[in-house]
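Board notes (copied after class):
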Amino acid sequence: MRVNSPDISGRAPRADARRNREALLSQAAELITEHGPAVALDEIARAAGVANATLYRHFPDRAALLRAIAIQVTGATAEAAEQALAEETSSFQALARYLAEALRIRVAWVMPAIAAALGPADAELAALRGRGIAAVTTLIENAQRDRAIRADLTFGDISLLLIRLARPLPPGHDRAVQDAAAHRHLAIVLAGLRPGGGPLPGTGLTLAGLRRSEG
């Protein structure tokens, strides 16, 4: 049985197609979050190092590209939360691992930039969001049960912290500098999640409250 037989150039077409798709999604996320979801598609293709025809072969229109980005980052984030739950024995370390992975995936940077441009209710995206919410809620509850984090933290607190941590620095800072700053600030935040000190001001957003603020 032949699998991924190379073409006459010696390359595996399926592997090339997969790499092209990943490059397009990566560059699209970068450019869209910097310039907005209306950024020119040919600019995305150029940044990914592929022809316009290659972009349209993978994503027939802008809506398909935005949906693919949303599916990718939301699915990766849900998987990161589930893996942290399954593999870490410390509830605090599980939460810390998830937060670091969410920053790496940049879900809190990408999704706010494209949310308004996404189509109506999408069953696949909703299912991935549901998986992520369930896993993150369990991460928070486990850490609070073990008194590893403050009891007055809410799902909304954690979600909004990620969004604030993921915000890009002013222009002129490259991605490596921005990522290093975000992870340094995450370490500071994680220290602040520990129990102790006085009560937090105000009231943390619940999941329902967070959804109302998004809509």
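Comment from the instructor: The chain is about 70% helix and 0% strand. Residues 62-87 form the longest helix (26 residues).
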